[in-house]
């Protein structure tokens, strides 16, 4: 069947408009981070700065230990993501390949946690972290985030797609569960793990409500907290420095994504997540 | 799998290393035997954050006994209160905190604190008359709760001023000294809209009722009378009607969020902005027109009454050692030099009466920054920020905010709205 | 004899099951400590009037619930909550589905560029997105307002206008999450066996029919994931722009149930009230989840 040229062109137009809407604010933010603040206020239409300056970045590096902060953020996001994936993989495996008492209810309960407002968990979790002596410590931020229902949900769905016969044959060959996981299941659910992993990484990387409560000294801050230091209702927001923080915050996940892009896209297209 | 495992192990290793070298704050004393205390503040980098860091560093360098760790709390006094709640629930507390005036009653009713004078009397006989000597009684009164107890010591003081864009006023053929009364503000705005097409006024709309209180009480209304809400008096309704008329009827005033309103003033879309003196450096540094600040307008023939904005410092340290350390730190912050630094960094009005004139204080600074002058001049008219008593106090404040949204949308008349809300609030209050 | 084998069989199953439980232990511990226990505690708190720090909690029975359920604000906010969900489902589930389908099967050029460009905003935090759009969409001074002005148009005063505020906050949230949902759906559609699609094309089956009869059913497992995650986004992610831009205003017009629970707990410190809102929210969504399990999950396509 031939696809109508005209239809195709209309779609190109739609995509280009959508992409402009999505990309322009990003370029605007980057442009702002190189503008003096008064210029940002008075020439809002200039996306590309006329008098480009590094002033905002210099202010940022002068006032905050930004390398340290970036490192903290990296630790939080990486450790939380890896643990969430491990716990979710194990749990999904149990839900798919074992039948035990209360399985359905347990699954339902775990998935139900997706809808628990974080206000419910905030204070009790704070008390636990405080009792563990983990306040003002990146581990205090990480600890409650070692498991996640969204991960269990997606990985379980992906596992259900693996033909059961494959696992049965392996069991008949007396293959251990450890080896089944490693050699059969893991490679097949890699796309699901990758996609939910990206989700986890980006969300923990940008999280701010919980770390605000736990972290106190600037040396232990994460990047979203650094951003908060330039936002103030009463004194006014230093918009351009805030955008410089944003650019730094955005750049690292972006670099990570681009360097793994081949691998990620490869994972997706070789098997697809279904 | 093996590779994954290796990566995982590697990450775990480095994160443990990271965790080990992250400092644990909140210890009672550090290796030099200094008492370590926490100081909680709300000063973002645009609002004196750098000054806080410098003052704390200077203090730590000169003190042999105390080490202060400063913690920044985002989202102003509300955000600090939220963090205090969590900390108190966990049984901890910082030593020195900034408490916004609106939270005065809630704070004093729910948190453990020690009045500063008690700490002074116990440990610092030399400072016995420090507060009396250096603070005016009406300023100290700002930090008293509704039971009349001295909860803390005023630290950051702000008042609302009227910022004016002289270029627009000139273009509209108006007096570039700006309006003196609210009636004039309205007339000015009409002329500005007619002549230049710009908005006349932006009246700040943050998540509090500070500026509204200034408007209503200057007209002779009072927010709270004998522990009851009393804003729905004739004067109160008249004042609110004035504001809603400008926004809804005349469309000469802008109804918009705080950040956006200030943005629109700085880029020259609005001729006058009624907002806090704490915005001074933001406005002064970024406006590219002939900008000035004038004193808060009065109502024709009436006296200006301005609620103090800002915060006090309160001592929440539980142990004696820490309380002692807390005052040592506070007395440093209240020294003339530190106060002067504080004013320069934040734009707040110094609460100590002798700082403005002192040679080592703000003398030359004020000459160079004319925009500070109106805020300092109008300190005589300062009244306490209305803080509703009891546990429902914050809820009452919220109801007034909800009312503001309804009124400025024009969905309800000021008379009806103020009366209903007043009754609802009084039903809540003890 | 037969009872022995039966016992043995049972034993075998039990050992197997024990391993199943073992695999669940890490997740269960984390959830038990950091989610279930706080949740049970919240149920308990919902029967008290308390502000989290005062030494006395006053037992009020069901008062918090009756107050929440009789407050017209609650229904207003409930309505907003569903409005957010519907808007985000359209923008972040339906549209990316169509986009993914078009990029995979209709377009021949620039596919990679589109994919990359749509994903880019996913890396920006919503806090940044919120302050950025507050600036860009300032109805008087923002660049968009100025551009509109050139054409004699005005943009609505969206931060203060009921209705508009929800639309704009939804768009800001979508700006960030759109790309992620899109990439997932694209990967899923791209993974569908080409032979079936080609065969359908040979038979001159229309694109619309291909979409509904082949693509949609065969990618439905990812579809469900994106569906669920979009609901999560419209509940939990919307919180950030609400908090940064509107604080639920004007007069609760942009508040959703999650933000309202936050507002009650951390702005006016009515812990019991907030707990009751959280429990009602939970109950409502568990019911929806249950229905999803009963009726939707059944129709999901799994390869075996």
Automatic annotation (TrEMBL), chain A:
Residues 70-260 form the ABC transmembrane type-1 domain. Its main location: membrane. SUPFAM superfamilies: MetI-like (SSF161098). GO terms for biological process: transmembrane transport. It is a multi-pass membrane protein. The keyword Aminoacyl-tRNA synthetase does not apply. CDD domains: TM_PBP2 (cd06261). The chain crosses the membrane at residues 12-31, 74-98, 105-126, 138-155, 184-202, 239-260. It is found in: Cell membrane. GO terms for cellular component: plasma membrane. Keywords: Cell membrane, Membrane, Transmembrane, Transmembrane helix, Transport. InterPro entries: MetI-like (IPR000515), MetI-like_sf (IPR035906). Pfam families: BPD_transp_1 (PF00528). Belongs to the binding-protein-dependent transport system permease family. This is ABC transporter permease. It comes from Oceanobacillus sojae.
From TrEMBL, chain B:
CDD domains: PBP2_UgpB. It comes from Oceanobacillus sojae. Keywords: Signal, Transport. It is found in: Cell envelope. This is ABC transporter substrate-binding protein. Its main location: other. GO terms for cellular component: cell envelope. Belongs to the bacterial solute-binding protein 1 family. It holds the Pfam family SBP_bac_8. Residues 1-24 form the signal peptide. PROSITE patterns: PROKAR_LIPOPROTEIN.
Automatic annotation (TrEMBL), chain C:
The keyword Transport applies. CDD domains: TM_PBP2 (cd06261). It is found in: Cell membrane. GO terms for cellular component: plasma membrane. GO terms for biological process: transmembrane transport. The chain crosses the membrane at residues 21-44, 82-106, 118-137, 164-189, 210-232, 272-291. InterPro entries: ABC_transporter_permease, MetI-like, MetI-like_sf. Pfam families: BPD_transp_1. It comes from the Bacteria. The keyword Secreted does not apply. It is a multi-pass membrane protein. Coiled coil: none annotated. Keywords: Cell membrane, Membrane, Transmembrane, Transmembrane helix, Transport. Its main location: membrane. Residues 78-292 form the ABC transmembrane type-1 domain. Belongs to the binding-protein-dependent transport system permease family. This is ABC transporter permease. It comes from Oceanobacillus sojae.
